[in-house]
Amino acid sequence: MEWSKYWRSPDRPLEAMHAHFERHVYHRHSHETYSFGVTEDGCQAFRCRGGAHTSAAGMVLAFNPDDPHDGHAADELGFTYRIVHIGAELISGVLADIAERPVGLPLFDSPVVPDPALARTLRSLHAALLGGVPALRRDELLTAAVGTMVARAATRRPRAARAGGFVERARQRLEDSWSDDIGADALAEAAGCSRFALYRGFRRQYGMAPSDYQRQLRLRAARRLLARGEPIADVAARTGFADQSHLTRWFVRCYGMTPGGYRDARTD
Known about the structure:
By secondary structure, the protein is α+β, with helices and mostly antiparallel strands. It has two domains: 3-153, Jelly Rolls, CATH 2.60.120.280; 165-263, Homeodomain-like (Arc Repressor Mutant, subunit A). Helices cover 45% and strands 22% of the residues. It contains ten helices and nine strands. The protein has helices spanning 88-99, 116-131, 135-153, 165-176, 184-191, 195-206, 210-227, 232-238, 244-255, 259-263, and strands at residues 3-8, 14-21, 26-29, 34-48, 51-56, 60-63, 69-73, 79-86, 112-113. Strands 1, 2, 3, 4, 5, 6, 7, 8 and 9 form a nine-stranded antiparallel β-sheet that branches. The radius of gyration is 19 Å and the shape is globular. 34% of the residues are buried.
């Protein structure tokens, strides 16, 4: 039987999920946040950064912000995992506290890290977030987890700059007006290239088609509105989905839970 539990901080970019999936298949998506996970049981397979990966029990997942990935169980037994989503500004603040000076954001080259000590640290943080421990203890475990994650798994190489030229113009057009019903011809015209060149260049740079990127922007907007307690039908209408069922279908495919489940997640 598949299940999931979710926790969301009421005032910081910090969320946590504990789930077991057997048949669920994640559609290709990404998060605005860093996402660090631990596979507890079974194996999960996914594609990320142009390669196929498998995370078995005890392995750590490390996704940078905007890393496109999908995911599914590697066999019929399914997998159980914990994952924490931490905003870049929160990561930066924790690292600055540790170093006692401003520091740059880390980059994680490998999306799968076989490190038992790191897995234990992340599991402790995750259990605290879902377990309702006092805020001071949560903050201590957050600092420990971020510091350990960066020390054991990150590189200091800067992230590649965003693509220039027509791909960047198309991305900016989508970012500026994600709710618009823009067609391929209009987007290509805004970018200053052909439809084929835009599709090929966009997929190469961002790991997904422009239409998937636009849907992702809409889903992120929906998450923000749901976190404020907005009615699901209103959120669907405001974020460019045909109706509540349309939003629900894509929300589940990309996040493994319903909009209502996310809206009603524990925040204490």
